[in-house]
Every structure is written in C-alpha cells, then in structure tokens.
Amino acid sequence: MPDLPPLSGNPVSFERPPVAEVALAVQLAEPATDDTLTLGHYWPKIQARYPRLEPQPPLPPMAEVFGAGPPTINFQLFSASPAGRYWFLSGNGEELVQVQPDRFAYNWRKEGVAEPESPHYPRYEQLRERFFDVYSAFVDTCEAEGRSVKPTWCEITYINHIDLPRDSAIPDLATVFRRVQMTPLPGLDSPEDTTLSERYVLRDAAGEPYGRFYVTATPAYRIENQAPLMALTFVVRGMAKSPDTLGVIGLLDEGRDLIVNSFKRLTTDAMHEEWGLKDVD
User: Fold this and answer.
1) Closest CA to 18 of 119, 160, 181
2) 1 occurs within a structural domain
3) Which of 87, 102, 131, 204 could make an SS bond with 54 (beta carbons 3.0 to 4.6 A apart)?
4) What value, to the nearest 5°, has the Cα angle with vertex 123 and ends 7 and 95?
5) Taking all residues of the chain, what is their mean pLDDT, rounded to a whole number?
6) pLDDT at position 82
7) How many Cα atoms are found within 13 Å in the side-chain-facing hemisphere of 49?
C-alpha cells in the first residue's frame, strides 16, 4: 500500500467552523467483501479503535448520469445478498466506519455522540489520515483473500449546522447566504420556510463531465431544545482519479477544496466573523 501523500495547502480555515459531520466514501465496481471477510478478517484490524458493531441495511449505489434534462430517480431492485452493511463505531460514537460489499465509508460526527464534551471538528487533515488508515486496511484485507478492490465513484460530504437567532420564528436564508434575498410578496406573510438546492457539473480539462457538486440548505430545529438552525450540506461526487487508493484520495482532496472555498464564497461576512475566519496564505 502506498504512503499517504501530503495535503497541498489549506485554502480556508475557521476557528469555530459549524461542521457537524464529514463523510468520505468510496463505491466499488464490484462486491469485494462479504460477512465473513468483513466481520472475521477486517473488523479485528480496527476493533481497538472501533469496538462497537451495528448492522444496517445496505445503501443503493452512487451514480451520476450526464445529459439534458432534470435529475432522475433511479429505482433499482436489489437481489438478496448474504452481506449487508455494518457500522463499526468508536467508543463515544463520534467516528464510524461503514462497510458493505460494494461500498466503504468513514464518518466523523459531532452531533449526537455519547459524550457531550466531544472534541471540536478535528480538521480534514486528521480525518483524511484516519480514512486512509481504515481504507488501506480494508483493501489489504480484501486483496489478501484474493478479492479485487476497484474504486469507481468517490464522495465527500460536509454537513454544517448553523445556529440562528432564537427570536427568529422562521430561519432566514438571507442571514447566511450572499445570493439569497428575502423579498416580501404582495398579499402574503413571510414564507413558512425556505430551502436552497443547487447542483453543478464537474468537468475535466477536456470539458468532459466526471462528477457533480451539490449544495443544499434546509431550515431545521435542534431536537434537544428546538433552537432554529440551518442545515447546510455540500456533496462532491466524482470518479476516482485512478483505480487505486491514491486516485480515491485525489478526488476527495479536490472535493474538500471545492467545498471549503464554496462555503466561504456563499456565506456572509457576518457569519465569517461569528465563525472566526482566519487569513490563509
């Protein structure tokens, strides 16, 4: 397994980023594991850090279809499989590794962990290293058993929970985003709620599409105290740069840079001050 290459730069940094969850995921061209391999061979390699096991239903495959027209919903019937999806969680639930026959993922979660005084967001550099460690161990385990691991689609997700003033009955997107203006409409009260959803095609140097970038913002309320918040989610999904671990890392790094730069450009100066935007050379 090759060494993890150094990360080139840190384009945007906040002292108090509102990040609630980060997920790094890889889809495989064909199933590479089963229950026996996942539980009997792979889990022992990471069990010291991820001792908790939770079975989960399998996720449908990632896919991006390029061409004219609106996005389509892919209804696919799945045949019965001897292997499902497994969560391997850290003791406090802050980190989890997800494994199913054709997908691997690593998640860091700030919300809902077992210990309320959980550490703040540990930054992408550290999450990247943890993903590389657990994914490399997964690839080594599969290949030792004669299984081929062929990454195709890769996905990086950032979920941000942006707290809004309690005295605002309706979360206002204009307080967070530069491009949104809440213009009153004649004869109507303020909107009950407002959401934002955008998607962009990612193209290579030749202009060929290889992925998409998604931005969604949805008003919500915290379960524990009903405080208003804005759930701002960024997703970059694209084909691995090459069919190996370094190709996966390359796409995830590119996605992270796109997300953090877009986060800064989309959000207002007032929010930057609240989050403690730092100068980055």
Assistant:
1) 160
2) no
3) 87
4) 115
5) 86
6) 45
7) 12
Q: What angle do CA 104, 65, 216 make, to 5 degrees?
A: 70
How many domains does the chain divide into? 1
CA 188 to each of CA 170, 172, 184, 193, 236: distance values in angstroms, whole numbers, following the listed order: 15, 16, 7, 13, 37
Range of the domain at 49: 13-64+82-278
Please report, for the chain, how many H helices and E strands are present, in that order. Answer: 5, 11
Q: What is the dihedral of CA 37, 40, 45, 46, to 10 degrees?
A: 90
Answer yes or no: is 126 within a domain.
yes
Cα–Cα distance, 82 to 113 (Å, whole number) = 30
Burial of 184 (0-12, 13-18, 19+ CB in 10 A): exposed
Q: Is residue 190 domain-resident?
A: yes
| pLDDT tens digits for range 20-69 | 999 999 999 999 999 999 999 999 999 999 999 999 999 998 889 887 65
In a domain, 76, yes or no: no
Q: Find out whether 148 and 32 touch, Cβ atoms under 8 Å.
A: yes
* Calpha distance 130→127 (Å, rounded): 5
Is residue 77 predicted with pLDDT exceeding 70?
no
